Amino acid sequence: MVEEQNYYKKKLQEVQKHTELKENAEEKRWRDTTLKKWNEKTDFNEKEYTNSSDIKIKDIYTSSDLPADQEPLLGISGEYPFTRGVYPNMYRGKYWTMRMFSGFGTPEDTNSRLKYLISHGETGLSIAFDMPTLYAIDCDSKRAEGEIGKCGVNVTSLKDMEVVFDGIDLSKVTTSMTINAPAAVLTAMYFAIAEKQGLDLNKIGGTVQADILKEYIAQKEWIYPPEAHLRIIRDMMVFCTKNAPKWNYISISGYHIREAGASAVQELAFTLADGFYYVDMGIKAGLDPNRFAPRLSFFFNSSINFFEEIAKMRAARRIWATVLKEKFGVTDPRAQMLRFHTQTSGYTLTWQQPLNNIIRTTVEAMAAVFGGTQSLHTNSYDEAMALPSEEAVKIALRTQQILAEETGIADTIDPLAGSYYLEALTNEIEKEAYRYFDKIESMGGILNAVKNGYIQREIAATSYRRQKRLESGEEIMVGVNRYVEKDEKPINILKISKEAEKIQLSRLKNTKETRNVEKVKKSLDALREAFRDEKKNVMPFLIDAAKSYATIEEISDVGREIYGGWKEPVIV
Amino acid sequence: MVDGKNQLLFKDKPIKILLAKPGIDGHDRGILVLAKAFRDAGMEVLYAGLLPTPEEVVDTAVNEDVDVIALSLLNGAHMTVFRKVAQIMESRNIDDISLVGGGTIPDEDKPELEKMKITGNYGPGTPLSVIIDHVTMRAIEARERKLR
Lengths: 572, 148
Fold this sequence. Notes:
Helix content of chain A is about 50%, strand content about 5%. By secondary structure, chain A is an alpha/beta fold.
């Protein structure tokens, strides 16, 4: 293992060498003769080309843009450093999983949607929760008014989860739950249902997002200060490593960081820095990274600059494998692999001329496939306006099926490898990521950089710069600042019924009337003790509290009493 | 930014605006861009941060004597939450602070919001200059009522 403090600085110096340009006599000759003549003849004024990461793009790339030792930086698929893909046969073995994120309204609505998907052969479920659930606020709280079931399904107590999974055998499906601040509570509820179905936890597979660092960075859904959430996540890691080895307890997410305004390099650097933090946390909790790192997975954005996105994904795999091996001493290849889910970018969708969004999503989905993603969600064309309609979702899914089964882009592994441009860009993005790691390290690590608002300010600055480029017309969005149409016809969008709110309120009222109050109190008291004792693992206590039908807000309030809330640092 | 006779209105004190996301909603990309844009346009900008209650938003606006409250929500709850803010303002007879809105607001909701005197209601992709002009117009109305 390399001396920790200087690791990123050393790596930066090392990868910098991969981007140093060499003199290419042939390129120089071409520039001075053929190109120069052509430009003069056509009266061509050269402008500067950059991408989201402000990396300058050359007009042409040649072999001299790559280092002499480029080959070992790539390796071959399924082998270290996994630049070309994590599995030996990639999509020849199996296409990426087409995992469409869904969830809406009441647990009943969501249950029938899940059963519908299962009946059509789906084995991987993916659940979206509404805003009150994401912030651990009960549906009968004043704050939740008007928000029930709007952005996903509402879950206030185990009763709701029982309805969501009614008639679904948890040993036969895996479930991905996009939830962060109360991730441990939802995991506890899921485990409680498994227990009721008579299943051993070691048979239960699934994923919770639980990436709390990116919440403070981008998505902004938290309950407590960072340290409190991190302690709970640590307990979940330890508990699951022992008891639920197939449970993926963190999905380290760049998606939201990018949507919040970050560049591709920022998305990559901040996400991997979060990932390194979780690895370090697991090691400090006494776990073997060879054992727990395979349970960490990633979630990236695929935005509109095609080659930049592909380069980002390839660089991500190389950096992760390298740092885990060199810095954290991970030897098992399975623990060095960066596996990831991709979602196309919501930000690039426009409400103007919405059918254009199908094309944007297609290009972004292609980048994800060339980037070697393990699973993919394609956005629907109407999502700049609302949750997608059924028709729009179907086109989004069909887009993936056409890419997989008609176009041939998945016929061979990492088909763009060796492209001078793509490899040079991959090297460049890798270098810029290490520059951020070094800077973050000098600030005392990612947690400090988040708590003092540095990361958030970096993102806000990039986002504002981009907006100004759109305003000036330097950057183009078709239908927004070019080829604008007046009097556009509205399209049909999905409306969420107000019934969901009534149904949820009445179920909660009934739950509160019928549950054993003494049991609820006892379980919450025990949870409070566990929260107070750093050495205790809170997971078994969370499971007990969930089983007593304590609500998500009651359970989280125990932590709120002890840890308090969180006010974010000044960003603007 | 402000020309002609209106310049006098803002001579000693520039337009003061409070930005807030009063629902349960962390989508703050747009509001952070606007905070910078309003500041660059010479306004005094206050940001209420995430998750303030509608009551807190109105209290802050009154205590800080702002000209405009700009509300942003991208979680679909605008009809409930924006209405709460408007109702609190109405119940307290506050008429010298203008309300503007923005976010993912379907066209069909806009007339009802206008009835609550919540104007603008711009979506993603709206040029900053359009938003700044609108806020300025609403700030003039508010400032005139303050001086009345």
